[in-house]
Amino acid sequence: MNSQPILKIAHLGHSYGKFPVIRDISLEVDRGSLTALIGPNGAGKTTFYNAVSGRFRPTRGQVFFDGREITGMPAHKIVSLGLLRSFQITNIFPNLTVIENVLVPLVLQHGKSCALWRRLQAEDKLYRQAEAVLDKIGILDAAGRPACELAYGDRRRVEMAIVLARQPKLVLLDEPTAGMNPEETEQMVQLIRELAEHFGTTFFLTEHDMRVVFSVAAKIFVLHQGHLLAAGSPQAIRENRRVREAYLGGSTDA
Amino acid sequence: MHTKPVATYRTRLLPLLAFLLLAAGPFVLPVYWTFILTEILIMALFAMSFNLLMGYTGLLSFGQAGFFGTGAYAAALVILKGGGSLWLALAAAPLAAALAALVIGYLCVRRDEIYFAMITLGFGMMLYTLAHNWIEISGGSDGLPLAAIPPLNLGALRISLFNPVAMYLLVLCTTALGALFLQRVVRSPFGLMLTAIRENRDRLAFVGADVRRVRLVAFVIAGAVSGLAGALFCLFNGMATPDFMHWSFSARPVLMTVLGGAGVFWGPAFGAAVFFILEQLTTQITENWMIVLGAVLIPVVVFFPKGILGTWLHFLKNRRSQRS
Fold first, then answer.
1. Which candidate, B27, B68, B43, B90, places its Cα nearest to that of B235?
2. CB-closest option in B191, B200, B209 to A76
3. Each residue of A105-145: pLDDT tens digit?
4. Is A122 in the B-facing interface, judged by CB distances under 8 Å?
5. Which of A218, B170, B174, B277 sits in a 20 to 30 Å window from A53, CA-based?
6. Do A93 and B200 count as a contact with CB atoms less than 8 A apart?
7. Measured between CA atoms, how close is B321 to chain A, in angstroms?
């Protein structure tokens, strides 16, 4: 297996006008790992994800994905290299059926986005793949229903299915359990663990819920006021004095 | 596991039945209504091409008449100066309109919503002004009157299009082919990309689509079909005039699509029929047709945002699913 890190960030910085939101962040994410990025509100987590995933070009620094520089590439090109992301606010195609939601990335993956003269329904292979993904995520029963009719937790699963359908090498999950009740959160954590095992996908997630972070992540990066405060195993982060002062507020029951 | 939508006999048979009924129309209706039906069909094709943008891709094009008019002028120029072949005129129109849509679309598809609408409106009016002022080519405000409409050449058969029934049948067949083409596009993998743009273009970009490119292709296709409708309108009226390109003409497919149902495949055609039939019935009684149109349009928008046909289809679907 390739031992080179899947994601390498070098001195990444981004400013809105004169106001720097993230500053000089350098980090590496290992292949096949479950890594978390934490930090209080406004620490710059989402900005960091946006800069990495191609929503905008970061004002400073470089991003390397799978050995290639992707700094400033348009989002769709980054996706085609195998880096996908989810969003903090559920981001699906609400009035398409659940299976159509998953067919969208599959059509793109197979380079059929400009196929005008085929019938979508004749694409048996795509349908089978979509069904397989839905089955793995556990929402195959809802395949024919409009995605917007599903319960909140299931809509988040639809987004997960959209992301995983393209068989990404690296997935950035922006607060995957945001807005979920404890039961849904537990299911999502379970799902992420299973997916990491089954698909061999690397996950890099931000999360508010500290129990989630400490239970799934093997490595944690802590962002504070736009810069990287600490990095290490959950144990090391829990015991890090600066992290506790800055972020955990001294609470040790996390 | 059945995850594909099942095509019912209704979806296959109804359009065929409608086609046959429409084909029989001029043989039972008075000539006056044949003219009305011809115009309905042309505007139906125009509005359906617009619906590809508004209903499916979520792009409100407010300059669609520019491409309609481009098609009309291309047809007129072929007939007047390019040898006068009818088939060539009908082929040149969508090509010219597609070319115009490619150039204009390249600049338009970068923007969303109201900005997109305003840029298309601006380009539409530029085309209008071009047609109005480039007198050597376009004939200025008089337009290009066709001294003669070339006959329909079907091998051994030559049919004069001065016969309203022949004109009607040509328009019916061309509109039907245009509609089949659009339907094919909507049901293709590309069609799924269009609805995905409408639903959530951001998510689409982040699963790997070049949203601008997909939009541009849609814009060119819609422009080409609008151009074809424009060519039919030119033949039907015996002329191409700048009025075909005016922004108020661009408003027509918008109104028809909203009336019938945006994103409903046959919605704009239905809307076109409602529009013209209502206009005919109203103008027999009063001159204030626009007041009546407003009185119909406003409740449709407020209470039935899916349009008349869209709401009806939704109602039928609900009833069916309750039964099963």
1. B90
2. B209
3. 999 999 998 888 899 999 999 999 999 999 988 899 999 99
4. no
5. A218
6. yes
7. 12
What percent of chain B clears pLDDT 70, i.e. is strictly above it? 96
- Report strand pairing: A170-174 vs A202-206: parallel
Quote the minimal CA–CA distance from A96 to chain B in Å.
Answer: 8
User: How sure is the predictor about A191, in pLDDT bands with cuts at 50, 70 and 90?
Assistant: confident
Note whether B208 contacts A79, CB cutoff 8 Å: yes
Instruction: Note whether A114 contacts B214, CB cutoff 8 Å.
Output: yes
Chain A residues in contact with B193 (beta carbon < 8 A): 104, 107-108, 113-114
- Per-position DSSP letters for B123-149, written without gaps between them: HHHHHHHHHHH-HHHH-GGG-EE-S-P
Angle, vertex CA A242, rays to CA A238 and CA A244, nearest 5: 45
Give the residue carrying structure tokens 């042309």: B42
Sheet strands side by side (includes A83-85): A83-85, A170-174, A202-206, A34-38, A219-224, A227-232
Domains and CATH numbers, chain A: 1-82+168-254 (3.40.50.300), 92-166 (no CATH)
Distance from CA of A248 to the nearest CA of B (A): 33
Q: How many whole angstroms separate alpha carbon A133 and alpha carbon A115?
A: 23
Predicted ipTM of the assembly? 0.89
Q: ∠ CA(B90), CA(B91), CA(B92), 5° rounding? A: 95
Say what the pTM is.
Answer: 0.91
